[in-house]
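Section 5: illustrative case.
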């Protein structure tokens, strides 16, 4: 399986529309790939908090349309990174511009498209970064883990700060995930954590990790870049540098089953196992 991670920058001198067009062109150039991945909030930058509300889009807004067309044109599975999504207001009606009381909540939402350009999944980021500021207070939290079945592997979707929460990845494994695809806007000052955590999630879940970050600087915050692909043994198959780059790698999804068979650590789990459904005979009478 061939994957291309598009490590682009969110330059403040480039308009959002110009960046959409540039990203769409990059996707189309990856027609030889099976899977293409973009970073988190690449239209505006993950740390451009003051722009979240102004640049928010409905789910099927301009970024959706551009990425759906690009996926279809290239014939690839596309994890189109994430957008600042403005959900519909109560009753399904979006309020007038400037009428915050009539607008829906904001989410950090990842979009995954099939090679025909159909929306295969939308994942609203569960773990929001910022503690008592930024994304943590401006965005609402998603609630549902998301997996997507590709022809060769089942993908578990995650976003940036999610990488620090292993229980999410266990949940994705329990849902059948063999490959984790994560888009991020990870800061340079914590780049060592980025590499460490990507390898840890791969090793503990015996899965591939494809983590696509951003280059450049967002709202004064230098980005780590260094998009990375890790195999189920924790070996780094490919890693980008700090600048804009297309990181392309070939990997064999069948290695997940082989690894789990040769070293069946997941079978020794004791804590945090999903509760099996009760059979009719298990239910109390009456």
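Designed sequence:
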């Amino acid at each position: 399986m061939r994957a291309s991670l598009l490590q682009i920058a969110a330059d403040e001198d480039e308009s959002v529309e110009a960046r959409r067009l540039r990203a769409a062109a990059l996707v189309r150039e990856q027609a030889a790939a099976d899977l293409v991945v973009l970073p988190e909030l690449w239209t505006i930058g993950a740390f451009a908090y003051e722009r979240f509300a102004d640049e928010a889009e409905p789910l099927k807004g301009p970024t959706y349309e551009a990425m759906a067309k690009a996926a279809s044109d290239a014939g690839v599975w596309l994890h189109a990174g994430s957008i600042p999504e403005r959900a519909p207001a109560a009753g399904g009606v979006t309020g007038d511009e400037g009428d915050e009381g009539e607008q829906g909540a904001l989410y950090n939402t990842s979009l995954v498209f099939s090679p025909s350009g159909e929306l295969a999944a939308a994942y609203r980021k569960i773990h929001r970064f910022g503690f008592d500021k930024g994304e943590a207070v401006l965005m609402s939290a998603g609630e549902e883990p998301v997996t997507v079945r590709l022809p060769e592997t089942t993908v578990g979707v995650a976003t940036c700060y999610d990488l620090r929460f292993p229980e999410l990845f266990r949940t994705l494994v329990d849902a059948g995930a063999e490959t984790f695809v994560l888009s991020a806007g990870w800061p340079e000052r914590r780049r060592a954590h980025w590499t460490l955590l990507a390898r840890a999630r791969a090793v503990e879940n015996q899965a591939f990790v494809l983590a696509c970050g951003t280059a450049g600087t967002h709202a004064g915050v230098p980005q780590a870049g260094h998009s990375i692909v890790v195999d189920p043994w924790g070996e780094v198959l490919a890693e980008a540098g700090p600048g804009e780059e297309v990181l392309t790698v070939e990997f064999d999804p069948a290695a997940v089953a082989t690894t789990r068979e040769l070293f069946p650590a997941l079978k020794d789990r004791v804590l945090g196992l999903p509760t099996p459904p009760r059979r009719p005979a298990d239910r109390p009478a009456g």
